[in-house]
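#lab-general

N.A. 3:47 PM
ok so I finally got the sequence cleaned up, no stray characters, all 199 residues accounted for. can someone with queue access submit it? mine expired

B.Y. 3:52 PM
send it over

N.A. 3:53 PM
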Amino acid sequence: MSSNYTVGVADGSVVSLRDFSTRCSTIFGYQYGQRDGADAVERESIAIGQQYLDSIKTAKDELQEILELSAEAVDARNEADYVARDASYRAAIHTIAVENTRYKAMLAKVEAMVVTTRIMERLKNFMVQQLEGSIESSESSVLHLPSRQTGEEWREWYCYQLRATIKYYESTYIKWVCQRDAWHVAKQAVDQAIAAMSD
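B.Y. 4:20 PM
back already:
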């Protein structure tokens, strides 16, 4: 499974060492507040919060729809879902193999990097960590061949998945609100400290 830093390697859009280095170097910019201004950070935060709310609404709407389906409609959805899961399973096996080949090719490039400064050494170590983590995650993925079930078994399973999704996004949204509020308090304190500085 790819991380935010290795997703481009996984999908083949990042193949050069320079592009991967640039992508990974943003960790230092975020860490030291040098990449984007506070306004950009806040805009991104608002968008993330809205995504959580949208995901909650979508899952709740779908749950209501599934609960109201007739037995015949459930059987049809069950069969369509089985066909889709089977195709997804077969595609995932191929995707994992392709992604691992890409990760390992990029890892060889990173390991061959000659570093001359401490920050470059930290960047190289971070890049290796990201790639090795993605390789390990992919290789430890457990794929299960889909099994057939009755329509009502499918409805029960699908509703369980939707309720878990709702619970996850509600919990994540609460954490996001807390982090957003803490960020605003910290930003306000920094702004006040800067304003109080003499020229």
